[in-house]
Amino acid sequence: MALTPLVDVIFLLLLFFMLTSTFTRFGTVPLAAGGGGAAAAPAEGLSFLRLTARGATLDGAPLPEDPAGALRGARAVLSTGPDVDSQTLVDLLARLRTVPDLSLTVLR
């Protein structure tokens, strides 16, 4: 009994799985840390974003699909719930990246 047909089948299966699999590039998201000794700024004009598994809210109301109108030039604080995975956070940060002059702080 020859092993050549078995090796051929294994090679074809290996080739098939290599060509049909998808490769994702993992990247990093740059986050700027706040200053340690800076004085606290007043809370007026500060928007509160809350991200949960059900979605994002802005000051208690659902976040609009285009947040640029509501958050243009604003200062905002983003808080995430314990049930939020990192991909959901990255998706929201990508949406918020389109808002001009947004100052965003992500809470732990």
Radius of gyration: 23 Å
- Counting DSSP H or I runs of 4 or more residues, the number of helices is 3
Shape: elongated
Structural class from helices and strands?
alpha/beta
Query: Could you give a short account of the major beta sheet?
Result: 5 strands, mixed
In terms of DSSP E residues, the strand content is 15-25%
Mean pLDDT: 82
In which range does the helix fraction lie? Answer: 25-40%
- Which spans of ≥5 residues are poorly predicted at pLDDT below 50? none
Main-sheet strand order equals 3-2-1-4-5
Question: What's the order of the H and E elements?
Answer: HEEEHEHE
Q: Compute the separation of the termini in Å.
A: 63 Å
Strands, count: 5
Detailed description of the structure:
- Strands 3-2-1-4-5 form a 5-stranded mixed beta sheet, with no helix packed on it.
- The mean pLDDT is 82.
- By secondary structure, the chain is an alpha/beta fold.
- The chain has helices spanning 4-20, 68-71, 86-96, and strands spanning 46-52, 55-58, 61-62, 75-80, 103-106.
- It is elongated.
- The termini are far apart.
- 30% of the residues lie in helices and 21% in strands.
- The chain has a domain at 45-108.
